Amino acid sequence: MGHPTFSIVIPTCNRNDLLVLCLDKLAPTFQTLPPEKYETIVTDDGKNVSAEELIRQHYPWVKWVKGPQKGPASNRNKGAKEAKGEWLVFIDDDCLPEPNVLEAYNNAIAEHPQSLAFEGAILPDNKELLKDEMAECPVNESGNCFWSANICIQRAYFESINGFDEHFLIAAQEDQDLYLRLKQHTVIPFVPSSKVVHPVRYITLKKKLKGMKIKYANWIYFMKKHDSKDIRFHFAKGIKDYLRLSVQHLVRFKFRLAFYYLLNAAYNLYLSLFYSSKPTV
Questions:
Q1: Per residue in 249-270, is it b (16+ CB within 10 Å) or e — as a string?
Q2: Hey, which of 26, 188, 207, 253 has its CA 20 to 30 A from 160?
Q3: β-strand partners of 117
């Protein structure tokens, strides 16, 4: 039997409850693309909860791989190394793929034979919930985002540019870094008919504050890597932007978000004044 056209890579970490919903949508009985044309790989960074037994018992058509436990970029790369397909499709474990998510990519590849990468649509499960305080969800309805919850890349080319940069230790900027590197060599069409539904989630203020340091370390690494002309100027501009957001949420009585953006403004002030060329995570 020949190699499949697509290898779906799903990174997961201690989220079996969400993973099963995602896998159900990728089952051969649900997808419109013939099952022999794709494989599904779950690369598992879980420490306390493993998906191995779950997959063995209920999803025998899925390949489970133990992740390297070095962050999401490294976890995706691990799954890609196990892939046999000509094209890699990265989908997050909390997403619900539509039945034609792969068929739409297959058609796009035929329509754009020179392209080495594509991005699909990411839609919220409930747009109204996004109006709530502390609610968030990546939404990609028109392209130019290239968020790793739904992207497709030729495997040989992905390997030639060494995949995701594993210096990004959290799920932030690692896909944008890959996007910039890909754009140097290929046009990346948006495929609106290739859809995944992403749940709207609520992030506590405590969790947002806890992640600020590593978030900014990621940003600094990203800007240094892509030759930002003036990193201090970027953070100086951020002061104004975050103050504006703080005021906007304050007048809407969203006090937690107002405080969060005010703190971001203060942190940007600190970085613009005391930025070190060697940030640590």
A1: beeeebeebbbbbbbbbebbbe
A2: 26
A3: 153
The Cα-based distances of 23 to 20, 57, 94, 250, 265 in angstroms read 5, 13, 10, 40, 40
DSSP class per residue in 130-196: GGSTTEE---BSSSS---TTEEEEEHHHHHHTTSS-TT--SSSSHHHHHHHHHHTT----EEEEEEE
Rounded-to-integer distance, Cα 130 and Cα 209, Å: 20
pTM: 0.91
158: its two tokens:
């992905």
CB 27 within 8 A of CB 101: no
Could you tell me the two tokens for 195?
């859809």
Edge to edge, what strands does the sheet with 150-154 contain? 62-66, 38-44, 6-12, 87-91, 150-154, 117-124, 190-198, 96-97
pLDDT in tens, 155-207: 999 999 999 999 987 888 899 999 999 999 999 999 999 999 999 999 999 99
